[in-house]
Amino acid sequence: MTIIRALHKLDGATSRGAPVPAAQVTLAETGESFAVEPHETLLAAALNAGVDLAHDCKSGYCGSCRIRVLEGEIAYDEEPAGLSGEERGCGFALACQARVRMALRIEAERMPADRPEPAGIAARVVAAERVCGDITRLRLAPEGGMPAFLPGQYLDLVTETGATRSFSIASAPAQGEIELHIRRIPGGMVTSGLLPEVRPGDPVRLHGPHGLFRLHPGDFRPLLFVATGTGIAPIRAMLAALRDDPDCPPVALYWGMREESELYLAAEIAEIGAALEAFSFVPVLSRADAGWTGRRGHVQEAVLADLSDLPDHAIYLCGSPAMIAEARTRFLEAGASANHIYADCFHFAHNL
Predict the structure, then answer these.
(1) pLDDT given for residue 15 in this prediction
(2) Mind telling me which PANTHER family this protein's record contains (predicted)?
(3) I need a labelling partner for 258 at 20 to 30 A (CA). Which of 26, 35, 103, 334 fits?
(4) Phi, psi of 264 (to 5 degrees)
């Protein structure tokens, strides 16, 4: 029997004060096992044991560390945002938040073998263009040539103090430049402090690539991209890569913004899409003025109104945590395959 419940207190001891023993977790696919101490999450214990389970944000938002509990019991300090109620009801859990209460047998993905190893990257600023409102398009020339990365991954920008801020790569590997789309966070050390002072030729330190958000060409399904805000950046990189794919499946892109002036990539997206065999682009505005003749409201609602064949799609979600959480839940209710929803959640650090 599988039990997943919320846990209000984990103190490593029973009510009588006796230590709680470590629990064993076994991977159903390989028979490998590792021990999890009461103070550890399942993911932390796996990584400490050298078992490289798939993971990304480690904060319960992106869903990359999703596992399926076949036998045993896990608990959470707080229910993670990156897992829908329907997924929980089917026995899925997030390893980065799960506490192990008894022996488990699980199904779990490993980190992909084709993922490039992160490393330090030295680059110089080519241009910093404010494209709309609070969004800047930062173009960088890496020293020593383009680093290896998969379209959809992100880089950390490293400040002089060693603090980092993560930004998705908007350029394709063949572009020759690293492009980052950066939304200003009021009071942010990097986005409001350092970014306005950047000039062409300035040195920039980066580290990466990071992240599991990437194309899954083995799906052989029509592709549905759903983005809000600068979540369009990694989608742009994916679209640019698909332009060179002779077997590219049909692609539908829904991009949610507030106002028409914020659709800073609309012309480029149309240009890239014209090179694809089957492409549709639907911008959706939540605060459109009276002159807007396109779609209004929330981007996930537009998808549900248009597409009745969600079970047949590979779905890529990128942007705000609220959009991703609702879209994941609503799309699953509409029959989408839980194994074919991939998400990159932009959980902002407000002090950066």
Answers:
(1) 41
(2) NADH OXIDOREDUCTASE HCR, PROTEIN RFBI
(3) 334
(4) -70, -15
Domain-ending residue, one of 150, 175, 210: 210
Q: How confident is the model at residue 347 (pLDDT cuts 50, 70, 90)?
A: low
In a domain, residue 114? The reply is no
pLDDT tens-digit series, residues 41-85: 999 999 999 999 999 888 888 888 999 999 998 999 998 888 888
For 143-221, strand residue ranges (E) read 154-158, 164-168, 178-183, 203-210
In total, how many domains does the chain have? 3
* Structural domain of 280: 217-345
Do the domain assignments include residue 234? yes
Q: Which residue bears the tokens 């400040």?
A: 159
Q: Tell me the per-residue pLDDT of 110-134, one tens digit each, with 9 for 90 and over.
A: 988 888 999 999 999 999 999 988 8
Give the pLDDT mean for 193-210: 88
Amino acid at residue number 292: W
Residues listed for the chain: 352
Same-domain check for residues 165 and 262: no
**Would you put residue 48 in left (φ > 0), alpha (ψ -120 to 50) or beta?**
alpha
Task: Say yes or no: 241 and 297 in one domain.
Answer: yes
Assess if residue 183 is contained within a domain: yes
Which ranges of 130-277 would DSSP assign to H, the alpha helix? Answer: 232-242, 266-274
Question: Could you write out the DSSP letters of every residue in 261-290?
Answer: GG-TTHHHHHHHHHTSSSEEEEEEESS--T
Comparing CA positions, the residue from 95, 81, 93, 98 lying closest to residue 327 is 81
**Listed residues 65, 89, 108: the one ending a domain:** 108
Q: Are residues 230 and 287 in the same domain?
A: yes
The residue among 15, 19, 2, 351 whose CA lies nearest residue 188 is 351
Q: Tell me the whole-structure pTM to 2 decimals.
A: 0.85
Q: What is the CATH number of the domain that holds 157?
A: 2.40.30.10
The CA angle 139-145-147, to the nearest 5 degrees, is: 80
Token pair belonging to 161:
């103090």
The side-by-side arrangement of strands in the sheet containing 279-285 is 295-296, 279-285, 251-257, 223-228, 314-319, 341-345
Cα torsion through 207, 339, 347, 262, rounded to 10? 100
